[in-house]
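Hi R.,

Here's the chain you asked about this morning:
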Amino acid sequence: MDVLTLTNAPEAPFLQQQLEALEERGVSVTVRAVGGDPTTPQSRGPVPYLRFFRTVRAEPLAEYDLIHAHYGLTAPMALAQRQLPVVLSLWGSDVHGPVKPISRLCAPRCDEVIVMSQAMADAIDRPCRVIPDGVDIGMFEPQPREAALEAVGWSKNVANVLFPYAPDRSVKNYPRARRIVNVVRERLEKPVQLRTVSGVDHEAMVTYMNAADSLLLTSHSEGSPNSVKEAMACNLPVVAADVGDVRERLEGVEPSTVATSDEELIDGLTETLERGVRSNGRDAVREVSLEATTDSLLEVYEAVVRDGNDDDADDHPSQHRENPPRA
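And here is the predicted structure, written out as tokens:
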């Protein structure tokens, strides 16, 4: 099977892992990405996306079996052609944020839509397949704690709370994390340190998670946050706001906390740090391992291609859907 993948974030670790897993299963993947630097908002105005229409049109579509568009803003480019079926993966902020109108407009015109949680599916006006991003449980696994602490340079006499995002990523709500930790610090005799980690190699995050005492997630919104699943694979306790599929993922995981208020986050983090034990998260995360989610994605691909081959051209969605507005 040959797949044309469209994305505006080709360096996203979870996307790279997914593509590598597909290629290991025999899928040939060609990636085309929107121009501009995704970390620099001013370089990602309308112009790079308008140019991306030309990029996709220049592709020899006869060489592919389907187009897989990642993130709602790439859906119009995938739908601008009528030759191939389109699979759309929505990532979270394109369902709950300002991109939502484009995602809702394009989703009904795609052959399949993949979302990361049932909450995302409920926000889209069409049937969706719920397939969270998979976690590589071969990479993310428990490591000896003292060795991990030494590797990252953290003291074992400090309760280390991991915030695995850049503080300036507004959706991750760093000010709330800092506020929570400041209160917890007053409750505990042991020093508490909020550790923000970003910009490191994905593989290095394994060591940080094994060195930490807890992961703290305070995001405004999420789809299926990979940091939570990766922490679970390392048996790192998680204290998280009730966003995305976090409550479902952490069901039965102990210790862990899913909170709807600052007070619950404070109480949960305090208790977790006082107990000072690892969780049983690795057992629970196996159902969303990279292997399992790749199986599900391949089922979607095979169904879309099979339906496209079985239907007459006039009956197939990719042949008669209307092109969405390009604004």
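One quick note: The first strand starts at residue 2 and ends at 7.

Cheers,
M.
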